[in-house]
Amino acid sequence: MRRKMVAGNWKMNMNFQEAEELLDELVDRLDKELEGHDVDVVVCPPAPYLEMAYDLGTSEEDENQVYFSVGAQNVNEHDKGAYTGEISASMLASMNVEYCIVGHSERRKYYAESNQQVARKVEILLQNEIVPIVCCGESLEERESGNHFKVIEKQLAESLFQLKPLDFARLVIAYEPVWAIGTGKTATPAEAQEVHAFIRNLIQEKYGKEMARQTTLLYGGSCNAATAPELFACPDIDGGLIGGASLKADDFIRIINAFE
Ligand code: 13P
Questions:
Q1: Which of 126, 195, 205, 250 is most buried, taking the most CB atoms under 10 A from its CB?
Q2: How many domains does the chain have?
């Protein structure tokens, strides 16, 4: 279902103590300032901190009081077995992980993750009741050569459009132009909105109008407290996948507050 959402992708940052401090501060601020807010907040720390994030993000007095959901940054596409160093979807599910980022451009670039691999990861996550946050987006070269729509269409067609409607309905898509990630160069609201509308239209062509209307689409790439309000005001942008600015509680809270 379409929701307002802000997800923090910590990437490979923070030692254990720093992570604990940031999580504590987030809980404290969310408890005081954002009672009853209507935004799904997701924190995606490095894998060793997932359990701590779940424990700290759930109130000790009332386990129904959850300050944020916990997401992983990656998952292996196999069920289980001899894959040294890898983490399976069922392991994540058994640790109360509700979301998992898939197909991030850093994984595509540094670990050669293909659209086909993304498709398998999405399927195994859905089988384990974990919501995939599936990233797509073009490089600077692809944008400058005017190929960005084609690239995004291929990414979605090869990684998601094999899904049955009931499965597709459970995932979240994040548009993250590679040239905006970690560069301080946020896409303008007009640039981001144009691609989000394009993605919604692709979903409509494949799955129909209602599915397009109900899919949560996030923007990611140097989104911060200053740029979030204008981005989140765009009709087809439902929130953000936040990297650098999710590492400071104050910035992250301000981004959660950036919806009108
Ligand atoms: P930055 O917000 O640091 O640009 O990172 C965005 C991102 O890659 C989130 O997944």
A1: 195
A2: 1
First to last CA, the chain: 20
Confirm or reject: Cβ of 242 under 6 Å from ligand 1. Answer: yes
CB 254 within 8 A of CB 225: yes
| 101 Cα nearest atom in ligand 1 | 10
**Tens digits of per-residue pLDDT, 56-95?**
999 877 777 889 999 999 999 999 999 999 999 999 999 9
Ligand 1 pocket member 97 (CB < 6 A): no
What pLDDT digit, counting tens, does each position of 9-44 carry?
Answer: 999 999 999 999 999 999 999 988 877 679 999 999
Cβ of 181 less than 6 Å from ligand 1: yes
pTM score of the predicted model: 0.97
State the residue range of the domain holding 247. Answer: 5-78+85-256
- CATH number of the domain that 196 lies in? 3.20.20.70
AA identity, residue 222: S
Atom from ligand 1 closest to the CA of residue 244: 3
